[in-house]
Design brief:
This protein is mainly alpha-helical. The protein has a domain at 29-95. The protein contains 4 helices and no strands. It has helices at 2-11, 15-45, 50-59, 64-95.
Length: 96
């Protein structure tokens, strides 16, 4: 992409270095946003993971209708977090 070449030239960086750092910054930002959303749901229900939320449901400590939207969102967010961490591992392993 030409924009990477132009910006890399202005910053006196290699195009590859700029690309990698851009991806790393994007992943870190996304991961922070995901962690914040997970924390918000966790705080609301007094849990740290989807497994704890499921356990509270099984024990009858919370009602299904009170947590189903949060359960689905938390499931998605934890999966997305795993994807972000895998992507960060690929960047770190290849370009450190």
């Amino acid at each position: 992409m030409q924009i990477f070449e132009d910006v890399a030239h202005v910053l006196h960086l290699s195009k590859e270095k700029l690309e990698v750092e851009s991806i790393r910054t994007f992943l870190e930002k996304e991961l922070r946003n995901i962690e914040a959303r997970i924390y918000k749901i966790g705080t609301k229900h007094g849990i740290k993971s989807i497994f704890e939320l499921d356990e509270k449901l099984k024990k009858g400590e919370i009602k299904e209708e009170d947590m189903m939207d949060d359960f689905m969102e938390l499931d998605y967010l934890e999966s997305r977090r795993d994807d972000m961490l895998k992507a960060m591992e690929k960047i770190s392993g290849r370009y450190n």
